[in-house]
Amino acid sequence: MRGLRRGAAGLAMVGVVGLVLSCGDDEGPTDNTEDGSIEVTVTADGSAREGVTIELFESGGATALSSAVTDASGAVEFTALDPGSYEVEVEIPAGLELASGQARRAVSVPSGGRATATFVLVTAAGNVVEITLTSGLRFDPAEVTIEPGTTVRWVNGASIFHTITPDGHSEWTRATMSSQGEVFTHTFDATGSFPYLCEPHESSGMTGTITVQ
């Protein structure tokens, strides 16, 4: 019985010491959350788009917390964010539109993690003219007249190697395509006449002209 009493006393003493230490070290609740970030990517007609403004908002907020412009990789990152709900909004450049969705989107930032959002832009439908590179070795249509600011979209209609080569000017850099459905686009801002040709099929009459006026 003595041994039991000594053991109980020892446990009681440990409990008192533990209580004292616990009371002495009490500094309130600890915040274990870590900052997170949001990476936003913007593409236009399938390529990274530099120079697009992205704004960051609290969820439902009317005033932007921050804004930044996409870099050469089409990306921007907002860092040191408290975990929680945010919204990001893209300022759509002239002549472009969203392929789908809204310009402002909700994003949830995890503790210590990175959230992502992507905006896919395309040339506005009213400013696009499409030319098909046909299996009959023709640009269809071959002669196109457009206004400044219009984008011409060449589409390879067959699995044939073609070039879209400027003929006597440098309005764009020579483009090549060999797969069906492959696309090359160029936006014309200056007025003038811009002839072009397909190098391997020029002798077959595969030439065209873009007139901007």
Secondary-structure blueprint of this entry?
Layout lengths: L1 H23 L11 E9 L2 E2 L4 E6 L7 E4 L5 E7 L2 E7 L5 E3 L5 E6 L4 E10 L4 E6 L5 E2 L2 E4 L3 E7 L5 E5 L8 E3 L5 E6 L3 E6 L9 E6 L1
Parallel strand pairs: 1-9, 10-13, 12-18
Antiparallel strand pairs: 1-2, 1-5, 3-4, 3-6, 6-8, 7-9, 10-11, 13-16, 14-15, 14-17, 17-18
Description of the structure:
This protein is mostly beta strands and 213 residues long. The protein has two domains: 36-123, Immunoglobulins (Immunoglobulin-like, Sandwich), CATH 2.60.40.10; 126-212, Sandwich (Immunoglobulin-like). Helices cover 11% and strands 46% of the residues. It has one helix at residues 2-24, and strands at 36-44, 47-48, 53-58, 66-69, 75-81, 84-90, 96-98, 104-109, 114-123, 128-133, 139-140, 143-146, 150-156, 162-166, 175-177, 183-188, 192-197, 207-212. The strands form four sheets. Strands 1, 2, 5, 7 and 9 form a five-stranded mixed beta sheet that branches. Strands 12-18-17-14-15 form a five-stranded mixed beta sheet, with no helix packed on it. The N and C termini lie far apart (110 Å).
